[in-house]
Amino acid sequence: RKEVEQDPGPFNVPEGATVAFNCTYSNSASQSFFWYRQDCRKEPKLLMSVYSSGNEDGRFTAQLNRASQYISLLIRDSKLSDSATYLCVVKSMYSGGGADGLTFGKGTHLIIQP
Amino acid sequence: DVKVTQSSRYLVKRTGEKVFLECVQDMDHENMFWYRQDPGLGLRLIYFSYDVKMKEKGDIPEGYSVSREKKERFSLILESASTNQTSMYLCASSLSTREPSYEQYFGPGTRLTVT
Fold first, then answer.
1. Beta bridge partners of A113
2. Within 10 A of A75 (CB to CB), how many other CB atoms are there?
3. Residue with the larger pLDDT of the pair B42 and B83
4. Which of A11, A101, B3, B85 stands the most exposed, by the fewest C-beta atoms within 10 Å?
5. Rounded CA separation A87/A56 (Å)
């Protein structure tokens, strides 16, 4: 059973371009949604939470579509430093993912090329 | 500044050895977690703890045990290491289950190789 699915990539994108990737989740009772970023050989770190109305943080925009059960991340004016793996994370009441009920996707690998 | 530390960045052990991985957080967080991360499989939850001396199995607890004697410290134990436990082990903590405290803070990871 795949609760959170992401395209693993890699997405090879030229610097300055806009890139978007989606994540689908299977549990309709999911409550909260997040994007984490993981640099090569580093630990994951929270990039942004995803709110129902959609939210923006600088060049990053996150959107939630509850009807279709997917979330998206859009990166505008991409920088070399955006190269990383982006993990989609879902919190569900009964996901069995632990005290927080967080379930991590396997990540989408993004490579920004000069 | 939030900090989660792990006892070793790299560890090499032999098959059958008992292995201890230590994790310490200095944020007075209630919840602590142990994950392993493998290529193509993503992050998988091994065990978690929501209080001192409390522990719950995650998705892949077989071959592992944990100990939480103090709030700030959560240990992962491999009773008899096997080669299929070669992996990156990540410890994480979070404040509580109450929103907006869902953010999990991760340690730098321990890359364990079992030969």
1. A14
2. 22
3. B83
4. B3
5. 17
What is the DSSP secondary structure assignment for residue B8, as one 8-state letter?
-
Kindly report the CA angle at A104 between A99 and A1, in degrees rounded to 5?
Answer: 95
CB contact under 8 A, B31 and A43: no
Q: Which one, of A106, A47, A51, lies nearest residue A82 by Cα?
A: A47
Q: Do A98 and B97 touch (CB under 8 A)?
A: no
Of A42, A87, A91, the CB nearest to B102: A91
Task: Name chain B contacts of A45, Cβ cutoff 8 Å.
Answer: 106
Residue B98 pLDDT: 58
C-alpha–C-alpha distance, residues A71 and A27, integer Å? 13
pLDDT in tens, A37-65: 999 999 999 999 998 888 999 999 999 99
Contact: A32, B42; criterion CB under 8 Å: no
Q: What is the pLDDT of residues B16-63, one digit of tens each?
A: 999 999 999 999 999 999 999 999 899 999 999 988 999 999 989 999
> Cα angle at A75 between A74 and A80, to 5 degrees?
155
Distance from CA of A1 to the nearest CA of B (A): 12
Asked if B104 and A100 come within 8 Å (Cβ–Cβ), the reply is: yes
